[in-house]
Design goal:
Layout lengths: L2 H23 L6 E2 L8 E2 L3 H10 L2 H15 L8 H23 L3 H35 L4 H9 L8 H41 L2
Antiparallel strand pairs: 1-2
Helix pairs in contact: 1-2, 1-3, 2-3, 2-4, 2-7, 3-4, 4-5, 5-7
Amino acid sequence: MKRENKKVLYKLIVTAVMAAIAAILMLPVFEIVVPFMPPYIKFDFSDFPALFTGFAAGPLWGVLVCLIKNLIHIPLGTTGGIGEIANFVIGAVYVLTASLIHRKMKTRAGVIIGGIAGSFAMAAAAYPVNLFIVYPAYTRIYFGGSVEKVVETYSKILPWIENLPQALLIFNTPFNIAKGLILTLIAALAYTALLPLLRKLENKFS
């Protein structure tokens, strides 16, 4: 087998394994209820395998993990694919940003800097995606088309919240930044242990 074909095979194997892990981590049993947030906003670790794939195999392979995990999750979801589309777009922005920076700085510092940049990029992408795609769909599915009922779920936590853009800015934006930073911290801690194992696997295909 040619060297380039072996490298592609290595990346396919890593991507397939990480996508399977990511899909499992999207299951409700692994979701974490977030304090001081509406009950339908939960934290999960499913972007971590995608992030690490981006570091180990390359940015586009990490994005592919984001895509596969959401395709697997669509039949299990309750939003007709809307939530999965949003999850893919937001996660892909995070993984792509972080892994592109890491590709230029293949060190733990690159993981940290890339992850921080990816966290803020994810939050920036999530705002319009939530405002124009996710919440209009959720409003129709769960709240009878009433945006006021959506805003009410936020105003129960902070009574001075008056509209959806304000709610997303005050609640969802910091949540997405924090989520990205937590995943970045995990990646930085795991970097020393996991990446050498993947490199050994890569050497077998070189």
